[in-house]
Amino acid sequence: MLTRRDFVWTSLAATTLASLFPPEVRAASGGTLLPPGVSKAAFADAMRQMGTVVGPSNVFLGEVALAGYQDHFAMTPPEQHAPCGAVAPANLEQILGVLQVAREHRIPIWTISTGRNFGYGGPAPRLPGTLVLDLKRMNRVLEVNETHAYAVVEPGVSYKDLYEHLQRIGSKLWIDCAAPGWGGVVGNLLDRGVGYTPMGEHFLSQQCGMQVVLSDGTVVETGMAGQQAGTAEYCYRYGHGPWVDGLFTQSNFGIVTRLGVQLMPQPPGYRPYMVTFPDDDAIEPLTEAVRPLKLAQIIPNAATSTELLWEASVQVRKDQYFKGDGPVPDSVRERLKSDLGVGAWNFYGGLYGPPAVMDANWRVIQAALGQVRGAKFFFAEDRKGHAAFDYREKLMRGEPNLTEFGTIAWIPNAGHVGFGPVVPVDGKLALAQYEMVRSESNKAGFDYFGEFIVGWRDMHHIYMPAFRLDDPAEHERMRGLLTRLIDKAADDHYGVYRTHLDFMDKVAGTYGWNEGALGRFNHRLKRALDPAGILAPGKSGIWPS
Amino acid sequence: MRAAFTAGVGAITILCAAVLTGPATADQSARERSGAELYTHWCADCHDPGPGHPGTLRMAGDLGPDQSVLRRSPLVNRQLIKTVVRQGFQMMPPFRPTEISDAELERLAAYLTGPSP
Predict the structure, then answer these.
(1) Which CATH number describes the domain made up of A505-541?
(2) pLDDT tens-digit profile of A383-431?
(3) Complex ipTM, two decimals?
(4) To 5 degrees, how large is the angle CA A543–CA A252–CA A70?
(5) Helix/strand/coil for A19
(6) Which of A103, A142, A426, A461 could form a disulfide with A152 if both were Cys (CB 3.0 to 4.6 A apart)?
(7) What residue of A is the nearest CA neighbor of B1?
(8) Of A300, A305, A281, which Cα lies nearest the Cα of A351?
(9) Between the CA of residue A219 and those of A171, A216, A248, A352, what are the distances in Å?
(10) Nearest CA in chain A to B74
(11) Per the CB < 8 Å rule, is A156 touching B98?
């Protein structure tokens, strides 16, 4: 049997590739696990029953079949997040059937939509031995409403799927996608991810109406769809009474099986722009300049300030500039700036609307950002052939692409992981965050890859360091670095908005005010909504009783 | 389209087909996609020639600029393509059968290793 460990040696051509890297390159897969407390016979019986529900070919067991359900960028041994199996239903009825079997056998389930949130664990479950409920087969765009500017999608629809669908039918609606465009519309929104158009805050600005399955099989329609037949279910998100939709984001209280996604009508004009700043500490005055422009919506989209190495790494590799160990020195940073025509900080924004509106807004933006030392302004015609500008131009109008994955092409055989504290839009806080994270990153031996994204009134500091997959010492250093960063962020009262499987408990613990009241509240909800405790144990630090 | 499910018994009642305006329901998987279409959907963003493609950027570093483009590379064959897609390789995560079916993977591997059109 071909295993993940030795597959590269199965052909002569493969040997050519494999010879470039040591055998430790490929992470070993764990063997088949059983769910906690479930016997081998009971598990086999459950899998047989689930096979009758979803079809035997949609049940995946064993090391080879489960390779795609592991954390490909794991910093810990694969066994720590290895599933016992995976099942892939095609519709709501099959989900209900799978849930019934899971309840009867007390098998925990980890739901994924597209499972491509690499950097946070990908498709892998928090708890080893959990069964992955893979909803990728539910990949239908159920409706596109051109008049009211929304779509209704199933969980398996990726950004690329939805974009291609809209292109195919001649729609004039824009999606908003995360930077790696292979992500899922539903999964990213439920993880409270962000994008780069004026609708970049996915949960706040896009979500409207959910269908949710609870662990006992109850199907709930939220918002206006709570009526027998709502007419405004994808136009007004609140309905009547408590608004519960947020309970199903970053949680394990239910399984979202359908989502209303509000979209942006294509504007009459779009002009992406870039502003470069040569100084490392420019993030402080830049952030101060951006805040009023965002509050007033003069900059309507996600205002993104990208640091030098993030900007460089989507265009060139580290070995082209530096062959030593550890972070690139300042001399290399200066060469990168000069060769690529970029700054220590690189601000991206978009103008949207009729030409007169864009012209008027541009005058305000140029005057404000021009106050920062060394500001240089660029439009698309100035950056032809620049991969970094090209992919930002696409992102800010919602065209999915994978260029940003280039940050892990910076070094050979790499993965990456995300750390995302959120702070108010404040220049001093931004500079302090940058200096602290870059310093800690460099001390741990890693280059700093970071950007600050201002959605509206908040600022996400996204740090996505690349590390070698074939170097256990780097894994250990990365885990230590992230531990320190989470601790320091908590000490400074910066909350992390999203985290990798390995750090869910730790980050949840930083929200510990009043003897962990928030965590205890989540636990009470968990007991009430999932008394069997089978949905995604450990997600966001929420465990069953 | 919205269906109502009664808790416990799982009975299904179709309530309405509430498409207000716009195109009818679409299912991307309904039509069989060619190897070229599968490449465009799943691979091109990383492996097309030129800047802005992370797979190409990385392969240029590992194998040299002349071996950086995946399509028709002499370093790959069908079996390798199929194995790497399913198992992942270095920075490239694996793709599950629920994403690329076995039949689609055959067509994709044939396209990647086949002659130029």
Answers:
(1) 1.10.45.10
(2) 999 999 999 999 999 999 999 999 999 999 999 999 999 999 999 999 9
(3) 0.92
(4) 85
(5) coil
(6) A142
(7) A142
(8) A300
(9) 31, 9, 13, 40
(10) A13
(11) yes
* Closest partner CB to A93 (pick from B10, B58, B94): B10
For B34-81, the pLDDT digits (tens) are: 999 999 999 999 999 999 999 999 999 999 999 999 998 999 999 999
Q: Which two tokens stand for residue A450?
A: 């970071």
Half-sphere exposure of A202 (CA within 13 A, CB side): 25
What is the Rg, in whole angstroms, of the alpha carbon atoms belonging to chain B?
A: 20
Q: How many CB pairs under 8 A join A and B?
A: 203
Which amino acid is present at A437? V
CA A318, CA A316: separation in Å to the nearest integer?
7
| The CATH number of domain B33-117, selected from 1.25.40.10, 1.10.60.30, 1.10.760.10, 2.10.70.10 | 1.10.760.10
Query: Are the Cβ atoms of A10 and B79 closer than 8 angstroms?
Result: yes
d(CA A389, CA A399): 13
Nearest to A79 by CA among A60, A91, A66: A66
The token pair at B100 is: 């690329």
Distance CA A15, CA A355 (A): 57
User: Do residues A461 and A437 lie in contact, with contact meaning Cβ atoms separated by under 8 Å?
Assistant: yes
Q: Which of B7, B28, B45 sits opposite A218 (nearest CB)?
A: B7
> Which amino acid appears at position A190 of this protein?
L
Q: Identify the CATH assignment for A22-134 out of 1.10.10.10, 3.90.190.20, 3.30.43.10, 3.10.180.10.
A: 3.30.43.10
Partners of residue B1 in chain A, C-beta under 8 Å: 142-143
What's the CA gap between A285 and A428, in Å, rounded?
9
**CATH code for the part of the protein at A270-503:** 3.40.462.10
Q: Position A105: which residue type?
A: H
Calpha distance A101→A49 (Å, rounded): 7
- Residues of chain A under the 70 pLDDT cut: 1-32, 230
pTM of the model as a whole: 0.92
Q: Which two tokens stand for residue A184?
A: 């899922």
Contact between residue A318 and residue A385 where contact means Cβ atoms under 8 Å apart: no
